[in-house]
Each structure stands twice: as structure tokens, then as C-alpha cells.
């Protein structure tokens, strides 16, 4: 099970410091949406070259112009890019084709997606589907249960991630539910000792 650490809502120097602290314990380093909006893809070069062996995810949350945005993202150096599941099937298809062309990974963010919508977009075999609780909403009380229910409902989807206020206490049940990726942001990045905290999270997933 992979640990993805989300870095967001800080300046570039702070982001770089956080990345250095969580690497090499994190499997995936996420450059968050707000960080990308604040500085842009072309002004994150120093960050892009600091993740060492960890994969780098750009949470660009593409909703349109999928081909253009995914080409720009992969050319900037990202290994994984996000597209909103609420976007059109055509946008998802274009993102997927670019992803395959570059030999990278695509994560579909299922934020606010209905069951009907998920059924329509569950046909991308190599995509990672992310169960995501909005930061603006109340915390999900049982992410492990949601993962199990999702797997039962969509057995054709083989790759899953979960995000949204994941705590250490929830990790044992989440691990049992078995997503491919667990995404943690402030639970790690707001700790007094970020390096020790990411170690604790990673060890809990082993």
C-alpha cells in the first residue's frame, strides 16, 4: 500500500522543506492544487527535481481541455495527474490517451460524483479512482467502510486511492479495506516533527 503526502497552501520554500522531510518515506509526493495555482507549472522547477525516488503527482484537477493540460503536466515532470470525474467522458478519454502516450498514470478524482456518473466512467482500466471527501465538508466518519462498499459496487475498478482527513487511528481498518494509495495531507504536514510523522504513517501501512 502506497502513502501519498499532499503538500499544499504553503510558499515554494516551505513546500521544498516539507518535501525534503517526507522523502524518502513517502511513495508519492503530491503538489496540491492551490500550490500549483499560486505558482504555476513553470515556476515549480526546484520542487519538481527534489522528490528523489518518490513519484510526483500534480493535483491539477483538470475539468476541460484535458489533452492540453495533461501534456503540459507531464512535460513539466509529473508522474501522475488528476482529472475530475465530474468532467465529460470526452475529457477523461483525452486525458487517458495522453497518459498512455507518456507512459504515466492518471488519477480520477471522484469528488461529488454520483453513482450514475461513476458507472459511466468506470471503463479506464489503468486509471486510479480516488474516493475523496471535500475539505469544505465534514470529515468522512468511516472511510474503510466506503472503500469496501465501492469495491463491491464497482468490481471492474482495480486501482483505488482514498483521501480526506485520514487519521492514524483509521489506518488499520483502511489497510484491511485495501486501497492502492492512502493520501494524507495535514495529518503529516502540520505535525511538529514531519519526518517522524510520515514514518509513523508509512509503518502503519506496511
CATH superfamily: Aldolase class I
Q: Tell me what portion of residues adopts beta-strand conformation.
A: 15-25%
Q: What does the main sheet amount to?
A: 8 strands, parallel, barrel
Please identify the structural class as seen in this structure: alpha/beta
The percent of residues in helical segments reads: 40-55%
Mean pLDDT, all residues: 94
Q: CATH fold name, please?
A: TIM Barrel
Spell the H/E element sequence. Answer: EHEHHEHEHEHEHEHEHH
Radius of gyration: 16 Å
Number of domains: 1
Quick overview of this protein structure:
The chain is an alpha/beta fold and 206 residues long. The protein is built from ten helices and eight strands.
Describe the structure.
This protein is an alpha/beta fold and 206 residues long. It has a single domain (2-194), classed as Alpha-Beta Barrel (TIM Barrel), CATH 3.20.20.70. Helix content is 42%, strand content 20%. It is built from ten helices and eight strands. The protein has helices at 12-22, 33-39, 45-48, 66-76, 89-102, 115-120, 143-153, 171-177, 186-189, 194-205, and strands at residues 2-7, 28-31, 55-62, 80-84, 105-109, 128-132, 160-163, 181-184. An eight-stranded parallel beta barrel has the order 1-2-3-4-5-6-7-8, surrounded by six helices. Helix 5 links the parallel strand 4 (80-84) and strand 5. Helix 4 (66-76) runs parallel beside helix 5 (89-102) and helix 7 runs parallel beside helix 8 (171-177). It is globular and about 45 Å long. 41% of the residues are buried. It comes from Terrilactibacillus laevilacticus. Its EC number is 4.1.1.23.
Amino acid at each position: 500500500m502506497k502513502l501519498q503526502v499532499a503538500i499544499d497552501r504553503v510558499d515554494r520554500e516551505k513546500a521544498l522543506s516539507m518535501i525534503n522531510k517526507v522523502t524518502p518515506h513517502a511513495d508519492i509526493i503530491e503538489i496540491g492544487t492551490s500550490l500549483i495555482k499560486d505558482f504555476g507549472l513553470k515556476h515549480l522547477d526546484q520542487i519538481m527535481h527534489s522528490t528523489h525516488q518518490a513519484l510526483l503527482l500534480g493535483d491539477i484537477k483538470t475539468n476541460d481541455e484535458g489533452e492540453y493540460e495533461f501534456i503540459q503536466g507531464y512535460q513539466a515532470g509529473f508522474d501522475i495527474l488528476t482529472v475530475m470525474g465530474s468532467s465529460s467522458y470526452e475529457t477523461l478519454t483525452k486525458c487517458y490517451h495522453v497518459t498512455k502516450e507518456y507512459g504515466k498514470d492518471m488519477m480520477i478524482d471522484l469528488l461529488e460524483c454520483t453513482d450514475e456518473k461513476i458507472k459511466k466512467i468506470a471503463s479506464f482500466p489503468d486509471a486510479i479512482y480516488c474516493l475523496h471527501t471535500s475539505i469544505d465538508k465534514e470529515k468522512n466518519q468511516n472511510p474503510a467502510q466506503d472503500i469496501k462498499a465501492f469495491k463491491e459496487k464497482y468490481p471492474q475498478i482495480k486501482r483505488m486511492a482514498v483521501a480526506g482527513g485520514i487519521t492514524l487511528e483509521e489506518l488499520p481498518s483502511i489497510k484491511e479495506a485495501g486501497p492502492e494509495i492512502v493520501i494524507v495531507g495535514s495529518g503529516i504536514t502540520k505535525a511538529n516533527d514531519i519526518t517522524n510523522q510520515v514514518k509513523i504513517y508509512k509503518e502503519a501501512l506496511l
